[in-house]
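Two quick folds needed for the group meeting slides. Do the first one here.
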Amino acid sequence: MNRDEILISIRERILAFATLRVSKAQAEDVTQEVLVVLHEKYARVTELTELVPLAFQVLRFKMLDAHRKSLRRGEYNQESVDDLPLADPGDNPMIQLDQKQRVDRLLAAIAQLGERCRELFKWKLEGNSFPEIQKLMGQASINTIYTWDLRCRKQLLGLMGGSWE
């Protein structure tokens, strides 16, 4: 009996042993890993009496390694996603009302601001940077834009009642 025939017969034993302890898919994977180790690292071992105990020792190490890896990854006592309740995609009506009231207060406060502040906020919301806003407003100094931005935000906060909430 040559070495390949021995490995084929051992493969069935290894797979049967592994299937008793892990799932069928895992058992197939572990069996393949054991055969690769036997083929690559222990090519000199040709006797059946030496190869069988060696194969089962490698199998035990591989199964222990797979178990440690699943523990480390948090796969061991994992709940199925199908068993978890779905989140309600709609917002809570209370949250929706609160958000609508804040938006209404913000729009009313912005309407009370001066033209310069409204333009500044508009350009900021469009994604313009301070140097771009400086050019749009025709100002020589960027510090002027920073100052206007600070004053406009303070004024808006005051019109909102002193709080963004």
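Then this one, please, same format:
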Amino acid sequence: MLEFELLRTEGLARRGRLSLHHGVVQTPIFMPVGTYGTVKGVMPRSLEEMGAQIILGNTFHLWMRPGLDIMQSFGGLHGFERWDKPILTDSGGFQVWSLGDMRKISEEGVRFASPVNGDKLFLTPEISMQIQTILNSDIVMQFDECTPYEVGGKLTTEAQARSSMELSLRWARRCLDEFRRLENPNALFGIVQGGMFESLREASLQALVELDFPGYAVGGVSVGEPKEDMLRIMAHTPHRLPAHKPRYLMGVGTPEDLVQGVASGVDMFDCVMPTRNARNGHLFTRFGDLKIRNARHKTDHAPLDETCACYTCRGHVRPDGTVSGGFSRAYLHHLDRCGEMLGPMLATVHNLHYYLNLMQEIRDALDAGDFAGFSQRFQADRARGV
């Protein structure tokens, strides 16, 4: 099940509503990454409180652990991790690509050794569809080959990118056939590949549109290419996808990337950056980025962001109506220096809240017909510095 309503547009930017089996998602949206069935360092209740509408799971890793028998016994990923809102699962293609020399790609699929126990495994488009059907994710991604930016230390040539893109197209057809054979009631997205070559992106896009997927993603970005190349592909590709279907930019990115992506016609984003950076003491705020490990924060009584309403910055309202205050930069600096696990947990809550609130502000601006004004204010605030 997938229904997508385009509610408003401003330039290429889009305001929409995506209806899935497990709920409605307001777009544009950022999706927190929950690789192993959990968003690292965050309680599911906290995700709901900060406005998460849809989260990710990873086919490859959940296939490795805990395995499909356990997943099936819980009726899928929703029952296993006790998340009753929508879930999108990656196909496993990116994880297989990241194995490098440990995997062997053929027309049929990918052979590799399990990074968990060394078992010899074989992942094909059909098997990816079977795994994701057991996971019962609301959005299923086609199995694709992630076209690398470099091969053997050399830039990927157009011929190499074309071969990779065409393999992903053949796999897309197989995914679609298997998805239909399994009578999966959820939604399957195709993935546009083509590396850093616009002509290949257009060829991939046109072939996928002919297959009539319910939604489309742009893959193969943020895989080591310079930022200007990523922005070039982001500006070129999303708005060429069908206007009446959702558009997903995979693995992107910084707050600036999200705002620029919306301006380029993207509806959905995911990235590990807010959670991974939080665990390394790198915080995002309205007024720029902050590294909590820096000594200047040791005696600072201020919150991370005085405009932020997250638990880390503002605390919460107690049952008796009194308010517990948020945490200071000095305290977060102390936790980080001592290696206390509360430090990355509070940092993760803040970063994810910032990302999700940013998307809410974008949706509000689009509703008000003021996305251009919002973008200018966003850039000015981020340039102000903390």
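Slide caption for protein two: The CA atoms of residues 201 and 280 lie 35 Å apart.
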